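Shipment paperwork, digital attachment
Item: protein structure file
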Amino acid sequence: MMERSQTNTIFSESYKKLTHGRIYEFLLILFGIPIHIVTFLMYKVGKSKNLYDETYQKVMQSILTKESHITWRQQFLEQEIKRAAFFQESLSDVEIEKIVDALVEDKIKKEVEKEVDSLGYEKSQYRQYFINLLKSPKFLLISAIPGILMYVLLLLNSNPFVQFIFERVIQTVFVILGVATLVFTILYISPLDPARNLLGIEATPEQVANFNRLYGLDQPYLVQLWHSISGLFTFDLGTSYAGKEDIIASIANKFPVTLKIAIFSLAMAIIIAIPVGIISAVRTNSFLDYTFMIIALIGLSIPSFWQGLLFILTFSLELKWFPATYHPGNWMSLVLPIVVLGTSLTASIARMTRSSMLEVINEDYIITAKAKGLNERKVISKHAIRNAMIPIITVIGLLFGGMLGGSSVTEKVFNISGIGSYIVDKQFIPDIPAILGGVVYIAITISIVNLIIDILYAFFDPRIRSKMKSS
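Attachment content:
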């Protein structure tokens, strides 16, 4: 019985909270429109009195009975006389009386509304009526099927953490739509002509027109945009202009390789960079600190293509430790690309970790903890690292996105058939559906990573958790 009552309260409280936002209020009405049509008719037919108006009149009468308005009137009268004298305004007694009457009326209105709101009544009586219906188990049972979308929305927003994730997912959808529209528009207005590039300069106008008709390039901008975006969400981008390969199948084959290299590069960077940054911050201006930061600076300065060629010459051709190019199924061929791609990432995270740790370990609470005799290792591990992680996590998310999007150079050096080199190869045609698919699915991956980063924020920072709960 208690659990059923709590469930009813969850729906009613969630509805009451969400209807204070215009967007959510619109979505709740839209998703629950079959229910709202019936309940609004019930409300109109069964409405015998307006509780808000009735309460408003009672409070108004109470205030007038207390004669508080007489005191307000005297105060406003003195105020207006002084104001007129100060600004040297020649106002008649009638004009001053009109101004005072308006001020008293406005004051009474505000006081009445304030007291009525404190009693829990709302101007929108239908909203209050519907909230009360949501507390009824019978109503929830009857309206469960027609209002399933509305109830799902209410459940998603009943928990602050779930609501946070839900809102971030919705934002991600809009980001993906924005990226897809931007990329398609740039390719659409590009002076490059896919038909001419593929068919050659000797192609006849009839051949070019037939090519454009075959791939829908003769259709208006909005029609082409709609087909491209709908294809992204239905996983059907058709075939590429060159080779007539299935685009989704090609991306599905190439993207895992890039993602695998990026994830292992990130793991390598985190494992090496965070301990190095912590040691540099704790032993600041020491030999270790200078050594680590010089190495990090070198790692940031080396171009990835040059580092890749150097590694191939040294570790592949001279020492013959690793293959010079990528071979599917041979994990040894992934080592050099992972190290090359993760070098600058490691250097950036190490420098950021050092900077963030230096800020934290000089805070008053860390100094106080040390003064109380706490072990330095415990102070660093339990207090300093946790509080320094927010900017580090931010940098990791940003760098991972950049690494995933900029992996084409490393893939070209090591002859990796990944998504980065795939996009580069297709952009010179330009193969619009192939490029659009590759870029958007990279954007989706980056958005998912950023969502994980945002969730980690709440895990490491209790202030963010408390703000989420109070919102």
